[in-house]
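Work Package 3 (structural annotation) set out to generate three-dimensional models for the target panel prioritized at the project kickoff. During this period the team completed the workflow that converts sequence records into discrete structure tokens, so that structures can be stored uniformly alongside our sequence database. As a representative example, we reproduce one entry of 161 residues exactly as it appears in the project archive.
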Amino acid sequence: MTTNLSEELLVTTLQALPGWESNGSSIWRDVNLSPEDTQELRRQVSVDAGALGKEPEVTDRGNGVTRFTLGSAGGVTEVDIALASHLSDLMHRLKPTEPGVDAVRDDAPEIVSRATDGSGQTAPSPIGSASAGSTGSPVMPLAGKQPHSPEAGVSTEQSRP
């Protein structure tokens, strides 16, 4: 079950989604892309939105402008916001001048680093050994658990040529 966002939460949330507007019951964004990019965006949105069970309304506004609208008469939900964020990312990837998601933090990010061997060099970290986080507390895998291997056909940083 999805939950409708309050007006206050909706206003605050949209501050991190440049270009999106709201009337309280829906959110929308206009984007100006080439016909090829618009077609690609529509294709990606159709696939990704289907996975969320939420399809945006897509309207051709003329002069290369396409409007994406999310929400319903009941209001805007967290699923609408998640899809709007994803749409912003897709739009920005297709046309870097389109604003993407503008994440704002009120707190300082926690920086996690690997333990060093005292000379400033990263110490070797065999599987199962501790690595220190920013708090200095060791991070250990669960007892008897080995790291997951990637599925067949999935490459990892170590396995890429």
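Helices lie at 7-14, 35-52, 78-94.
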